[in-house]
Amino acid sequence: MTVRHFLTLKDLSKEELQTVLERGIELKNMQKSGEIHEPLKNQTLAMIFEKSSTRTRISFETGMTQLGGHALFLSSRDTQLGRGEPLEDSARVISSMVDGIMIRTFEHKIVETMAEYSRVPIINALTDDYHPCQLLADMQTYYEHRGSIAGKTVTWVGDGNNMCQSYINAAELYDFKLRIACPEGYDPNPELVAEHADRVEIFRSTKDAAANADLVVTDVWASMGQEEEQRLREKAFANFQVNAEVMACAKDDALFMHCLPAHRDEEVTADVIDGNQSVVWDEAENRLHAQKALLEFLMAK
Ligand code: CP
Ligand code: NVA
């Protein structure tokens, strides 16, 4: 059987993504009602972290426990990966012993190389370019609160990097329009934007981008690995904050999401993230349920 990987949302079809979304909701209900469901009994997920994490580690590790399996936390600091063992060799060796590999790293090429040499599914748990697992949770959260996102308008405010680029993929796969507000010099990959020109538009004004939006989403100004650019980015992104004035441009029933961790009064004001339109806590919790559905989809025998 061919091994399926999850490096970007595009590794699953529209139909498969909808199946995973609905299964995430089912698994959530089953877990909340105390039902035991262990399709991954005796299976192990290796979790390689080259960057920090709270939500991703906890959701994958807990998800594997709930599905009857085991998760192995591997930081690059404590494995031979951090001492320069070739990725190809590491992928061959690790995948000869476990049933799935989750990796959070820097260049997207790293997860592609792992996938090329692994005999088990590779799950991208964030690279500099994409964060597809977060989108599974975001799409489930929107669906639970408002129903299908098809035909709706989503506004992305902030950096054009990993989260934004996963939203661009999602625009096609979940069928919504995406209005991106980002400063010049922080645009998403122009080729990716051009591929999706029918549904993705770039704005330099946050309020223009937020007009009539059904969902407003943002992320930190300086991502992991960009800490030394914090000062520079505070200046560049000063007009790209989600605040009450920006939310007032969106529809009255618009939702607000943020993958977290958040910086109140940088990319989002406290009144918005802690306000009535914010669904960030459901969004964070849904990392667990959506990824359980993904793990089951990729790994259940
Ligand atoms: N949103 C997200 O991926 O959070 P962590 O960095 O805490 O895993
Ligand atoms: N863009 C952020 C997302 C964190 C979950 C980062 O890469 O640090």
Automatic annotation (TrEMBL):
Keyword Transferase recorded: yes
Pathway: Amino-acid biosynthesis; L-arginine biosynthesis; L-arginine from L-ornithine and carbamoyl phosphate: step 1/3
Pfam families, sorted: OTCace, OTCace_N
EC number: 2.1.3.3
Subcellular location: Cytoplasm
GO MF, one example: ornithine carbamoyltransferase activity
Top-level lineage group: Bacteria
Catalytic reaction(s) noted: carbamoyl phosphate + L-ornithine = L-citrulline + phosphate + H(+)
Main location: cytoplasm
Positions with a binding annotation for L-ornithine: N162, D219, S223, M224
InterPro entries: Asp/Orn_carbamoyltranf_P-bd, Asp/Orn_carbamoylTrfase, Asp/Orn_carbamoylTrfase_sf, Asp_carbamoyltransf_Asp/Orn-bd, Orn/put_carbamltrans, OTCase_ArgI
Positions of carbamoyl phosphate binding: S53, T54, R55, T56, Q80, R104, H131, P132, C133, Q134, C259, L260, R287
Domain Aspartate/ornithine carbamoyltransferase carbamoyl-P binding: 4-144
Keywords linked to the UniProt accession: Cytoplasm, Transferase
Domain Aspartate/ornithine carbamoyltransferase Asp/Orn-binding: 151-297
Entry annotated with the keyword Transferase: yes
Enzyme class at the top of the EC tree: transferase
Family label: Belongs to the aspartate/ornithine carbamoyltransferase superfamily. OTCase family.
Protein name in UniProt: Ornithine carbamoyltransferase
Organism: Thiomicrorhabdus marina
Name of the gene: argF
